[in-house]
Amino acid sequence: MDAAAARKKALSLLEKRDYGSAELKARLLEKGVDEQDADSAVASMVEYGFVNDANYAAMVARHYAARGYGAARIREELRRRRLDRELWDAALEALPDGSEAACALFRAKLRGCTDRDAVRRASAALMRRGYSWDDVREAAGRCLAEMEGTENIE
Questions:
Q1: Could you tell me the domains of the chain?
Q2: Could you tell me which residue, 124 or 113, shows the higher pLDDT?
Q3: What is the value of pTM for the model shown?
């Protein structure tokens, strides 16, 4: 496959979804493009503005934050998509505070039950979604206080 065919293949891949430069190169290599042509095609896509790693990292971070994932899980997704570590921090700093999302998710996992096992299961669910222990503890404290306040009003 020559350089022109590699660029055409890169454009074809980019029509379907966005890629970071390293991820696009890996995908081109999987499709049988030799390494030199893949490098050239990726450089062309970056030059044309079709590939921008910083924008892609921010987009991925926003997407997973909107789906209720915490910083650790988002970091793992950025790593899996072969983005540079320098871009991770900038993408995560641009996100809004996740404490509201953590509290909403914690409340949903409790389903109105506040016994010790339900709190433990809800906390574990948040940890699996990438929230830090501090975020989980804060969400648990806020949600349980709100639920106790509601019970006292009735």
A1: 3-48 (1.10.10), 53-93 (1.10.10), 99-153 (no CATH)
A2: 124
A3: 0.77
